Amino acid sequence: MAIFLIAIGLLFTGLDFYMTPGISYPAYVRPQGEFLGANMQEGIQQNVRDYILGDSMQIDVLPDIIGCLLIFIGVILLVKHNKKYISCLVLAVISGVLSLALRLMPFYFNSAALIVVALAIFVMVPVFEIWMEYKVIYITVAISDDMANRGTNRRMQFCWWITVFARIFIACLTFSGLFGIRRWYEAALVLFTLLYLYQLLQTRKYVGSYKVYKEGFNSALVPDYVQEKMRGVSFRENRDISMEELRYIRVLHYDFSRQVQEGELIVHRDIAWQTMRVFYRLYRLEYPIEKIRLVDEYEGDDELSMEDNNTSAFNYRTVKGKEELSRHALGLAIDINPRINPYVREDGFFPKNASEYLERDVAKCMGEHKDKMIHKKDVAYRIFRHNGFEWGGDWSHAKDYQHFVAKRRKVPGERR
């Protein structure tokens, strides 16, 4: 909905077709002498009166004020997901006020002041409108580029820049009174405006799902290029979960060398926000997580991912060594540093290279990274529990020290 409102608003602000409702301005008083220390040429005065203001109020068939209002509403809907759009709100208000002022000022100004103020506002209106459009389009591009929408975005940017140059020429031709030539630029303006707005609408599925928790911590629909990696690997067509229900999460984390790294996870959309919140808290506390990669980097092999101490979430699979569906298959579980936090059952433990971490008493454990093991006094345990996750280390039938599962819904027969 937000992108639809913005697109309609941009159509209204980008195209100007005026009609005269018959509301006459007061008779102009011819400016005499200097104004603010400068002499105004008679030709400039005449052009402003004849080609910018006219003898009566002109009403835009596609009102700029309504266009700015629609953009304002649409941007408000997006601000809650991405605060970078806030600047667009300010520019939309300024653009709307200036458009209204240009048509009303002849009722309140006259003589030399009218000419100067009218000319200033006439220049400022397209400047602020173009600035507003620039911010809307390029913030949207920044979001949807991340979601592999680059081809659409380049076409949108190209068409929009054509409209910018067309509007500049139209403004110059209007001031000069060359209305015959202006029609060709108006035709190009209409065509390329419709083209770039069509491309803008193609970004709605990405922008509408894009949420930013903090800088470096965001979620969105699974990008096309990530879907390609997942299909047939961690994701297979099934009746339990669809690709549309999943979200692609990007986070920052400290690795075991205390260096900041970027990580990526796939989780269910219902826990996307709390997942970002958890990893942000861990990041702020510089909690060490060796790596956070999609399990698809390991051909969907959970054992290989665990052996590499990779933190991961979604993988459409069954419980290790059993036939029942795992919570990972629904994107509701996250495994943290699995090599040093193994999954221990009566019939064995996973991963197989985690033997030195079977001893969970930090004082007795001989593992190199024993200080990073998860236990009830560990900060990761407290953060996950505080954000609505259960810990596999609390189970009685087995101990899954790496495993945190969201308290979302219960499906009969599900475990891990």
Question: What is the secondary structure topology, with strand pairs?
Answer:
Layout (H helix, E strand, L loop, with lengths): L1 H13 L3 E2 L14 E2 L2 E2 L2 H12 L5 E2 L3 H16 L6 H19 L6 H36 L3 H27 L2 H23 L2 H4 L3 E4 L2 E5 L2 H7 L15 E9 L5 E9 L3 H13 L6 E2 L9 H6 L2 E2 L21 E3 L7 E3 L2 E3 L28 H8 L2 E3 L7 E2 L2 E4 L10
Short description:
The chain has 416 residues and is an alpha+beta fold. The chain has helices spanning 2-14, 42-53, 64-79, 86-104, 111-146, 150-176, 179-201, 204-207, 224-230, 272-284, 302-307, 379-386; strands spanning 18-19, 34-35, 38-39, 59-60, 211-214, 217-221, 246-254, 260-268, 291-292, 310-311, 333-335, 343-345, 348-350, 389-391, 399-400, 403-406.
Distance between the termini: 38 Å
The number of helical runs is: 12
> What order do the strands of the largest sheet run in, or round the barrel if closed?
5-6-7-8
Q: SS-based structural class?
A: alpha+beta
- Sheet-strand content, in percent, reads 5-15%
Order of helices and strands: HEEEHEHHHHHHEEHEEHEHEEEEHEEE
Main pleated-sheet profile = 4 strands, antiparallel
Query: What overall form do the CA principal axes indicate?
Result: elongated
Q: Give the mean pLDDT.
A: 84
